[in-house]
Design goal:
The chain has strands at 41-45, 50-51, 56-61, 69-74, 89-92, 101-109, 112-115, 119-121, 123-124. The protein is mainly β and 126 residues long. The protein has a domain at 41-124: Immunoglobulins (Immunoglobulin-like). The strands form three sheets. Strands 4, 6, 7 and 8 form a four-stranded antiparallel beta sheet that branches.
Length: 126
Amino acid sequence: MEGNKVYFHPDRINPEDEYSCALSGYESFRSPSVYPPKLPSVSMSPSDDIMEDSSVTLTCSSDANPAAKYTWYKENVKPDLEPLRKESQLVFSSIQSSDSGEYYCTTENQLGKRTSEYIFIDVKCE
């Protein structure tokens, strides 16, 4: 039996759709679904007042299959040159007032790339 191949080009994939495949006549034995990242959500901990020298964690999460890779950026910094971190969490162990600003993350897999909304950090001096 010779298999048929179907190719999807990432530019033509709807980010809201999921894709799977099955052999003709065996549709009840579908492959796991694959899909591009969903719109990432960002959160900050702690979420109340941020004081200098405190620890702050930004978390980016997105559902994707295959799993997405995460990258953090700070607004007004050239993203191609200076990603801040390539993980789902951006941790400031001793945050400074110079770290104040807007941050965002991107999620990407072989099927697509999505960008989060901005999250604002306002570091207060003691």
